[in-house]
Amino acid sequence: MNNTEKEFHHPPIIRITHWLNAIALLIMITSGLRIYNASPIFDFRIPSVFTLGGWLAGARQWHFFGMYLFTVNGIIYLLYNLFTKHGRETTLFRKKDAAGIIPMMRYYAGLQKEHPPQRKYNALQKSAYTVVLLLGFGGILSGIAIYLPVQLSFVTALFGNYDAARVWHFLFMGALVLFTIGHLFMVVISGWSNFLSMFTGWGRKYSEPPTL
Amino acid sequence: MNEPTKTISVKRRKLLQLSPLVLFAGCDYSAKGNVDSFLTSFQKFTDWTQEKIFDPNKLATEYSDEEVTPIEGFRVNGYDTDEPDIDMENWSLTVEGLVKNPGEYSLEQVQSFPKKVMNTRHCCVEGWSMIPKWGGTRVRDFMKSVGVDEKAKYVAVECGDDYFTCFYMPSFLHAQTLLCYEAYNKPLSLQHGAPVRIVMPTKLGYKSAKWLNKIIVTNEKPGGYWEDQGYDWFAGI
């Protein structure tokens, strides 16, 4: 593999929103777990070391700051991906990407040696990055449902009721954690140069798919 | 001759190696202070957004009797005192501040208005919730009878357990804010705030103050027991 051949991967707005999102998500999850601990909906509590805010009031302050960062940053990211050519073609899953799903699964399962041709992201990556946008949206919506169950009662009603919305909010968080674990795993096996590209913008040429 | 010098230099080096830690500890402390003050300022912003979102005519859902939490599930939070300073025999509600008729009002006077019974969700800041069957006098009926200045901005309340909290006038005069004296069709029990408590289904539970003693109408922004410690001032839901 020729490492000197580089290609521009990530425009500044993607790199900035990516890292702000990483910070926002970390704030939301850790402060959210502290809030969870005040009245657990399941039969377990989260060890304090994974929580933020020190106590319930502090955790709520972090959470309600984080929710604005997460939401505003997420909207900017979404608008970029919806309304720029680069964003639409690289990240969001579209109908024509469906054909690429099975070949990529076969490749990852070791049933196919050749990496299917791709541009920046393959069909499975596009699915993941599109689904995670929906998960983020679900997290925000279920959060609104338990933040303003009287003023915005129609949002709470989407989830059934207040208690159900709390469970949904927790599940969306769990799904985002699972995504992040998978994402970090792929970052590790994709190598250092790929990781650096989220800081510098420049990474491996697209024509050379990552080798496992 | 070399040995002691060496020892000293090693010590100094070790000390120097530690110095960033000392600096870091210093930074960390001031950084924490800065983060806290930033979060406190940001909370003023979220309080402001909550005030703007609040619709004084929007009613909290009133549930059917089937949906009411069974009385065994009528919870008491863990911070309540067992012995509030309440004289049940001679209780009266003091009204002060920007009202035409300040003074002391008896339980009978508080109960002399049409009784509103409602099954509304009580949402604790901790996350749990319940739907009790509340009964009481609408705060707006009582406050109009004492000649409240509706243009006054704030209301502060004080309680028998030294608890205190505060509201914007529109929240206080909301149609579902009660001077509650009944739960589950029975007089309020002592542990639930007898003889009279606030019930305010448009706010988090810590606004529904128990063992009510005093109502003060004012234009100076009051604080609250939890609000002064970092909980949201508006606490709308």
Written account of the structure:
The complex is a heterodimer of chains A (212) and B (237). Chain A has 212 residues and is an all-alpha fold. Chain A is 65% helix and 3% strand. Chain A is elongated and about 50 Å long. Chain B has two domains: 1-53; 57-229, Oxidoreductase, molybdopterin-binding domain (Sulfite Oxidase, Chain A, domain 2, Alpha-Beta Complex), CATH 3.90.420. In chain B, 28% of the residues lie in helices and 23% in strands. Chain B has four helices and twelve strands; from the N terminus they run H-E-E-H-E-E-E-E-H-E-E-H-E-E-E-E. Chain B has helices at residues 2-53, 107-110, 139-145, 169-172; strands spanning 92-97, 103-106, 115-119, 122-123, 129-130, 133-138, 154-159, 164-168, 178-183, 186-187, 197-199, 212-218. The chains are: A mainly alpha (212), B alpha+beta (237). At the A-B interface, helix 1, helix 2 and helix 7 of A face helix 1 of B.
